[in-house]
Design goal:
Length: 358
Amino acid sequence: MIGGACLDLKAIRPVAGLLDINSHHVCTSCNVFHQESILRTDHESWEPADDDYYSKGMQKWKEAETLKEREIIEHYYGTRYSPLEMLEYFKFSTMIIAEPMHAMYHRVLHLYFREALRLVTLDSIPPRYASNISFYHDFTHPPRPSNHVEALPEQHLSDDDHLLRISQLEDWLMPTMQNDIRALDDVMENIARQMGYESVVRVGHIHRFLHQPLDNEEQLEKNLERASRQALTYVCLDLNRMPGDGATDKDALIAQLIRWRSTKPTEPLLGPEIHSGDILKRIHSCIREVVVPSWLAKPPFETGLKRAGTLKADNWRTLFSLYVPLALLSLWKETSPIQSHWNDGSYFFTTTHNISKG
């Protein structure tokens, strides 16, 4: 009996028959589908992955007769086939385990050290880093393709047939929406049912383009032109910015999105001001001066700087078990910033790390 499969993330997904980590199916434990949904998880409606659904997809992929059929199944189910599926007790949502050394030390701790605390320079107050977004907007998430998997045969429709079906749907939906604003959700749901995989992916791309800093509208227009009419319609409905004259061609939809974007901030959001140089200097002092048992290997004295080289998993473990908490606490004073929750955040983070390794 297999208790679980524990490998690094790059290896575990192929072993489990799931798509690679570079695919748009970014999570194997829950229903988060699109990369643009990362950091926007809807915690109220979050659901774990459906093991029966994965098994169904694996069987369909195994029985598919052509590469095209397998490609469609991969798009909708996010899976190929794994021999583990033969084990009736095996639950992919809970028994596929990302190996802690890579998941916690080389990924979570590494990113927190470099990206959150910005501990990569000795400058006392380095310039605030610019984000790749200008504002936050709670867009409706792209509909997961699996929600409409029963419509799989429609993927074989020609482009003309597919556009005709959408056009017929809009002839019924648009008047309904115009007469009753409460019908927007129903309209979006019906549009979503007609979307193919590419259109679903493009919805997330549109969200990213609209969030980005706005240097010039021409580039934004070019980016939006990559999206399908279905995806553009879905986002316009979400923003309640459908063209007033009833036009639903791509140019009219793009124009509405650009007008909406022009009402939002254009400059990139700036990260918080962090005295990262002072913190890193104190960490270096702690590494040099703190006396530790001989069995506890110290990280490089210049940790965080390029000349320190690539840190090993054990270095990250030691940093967050001892040196980072010690450095932060030794710098914290009564006159420290009002945003004391920053220090609380680091405390909870390191506590979580210590629990996870225990």
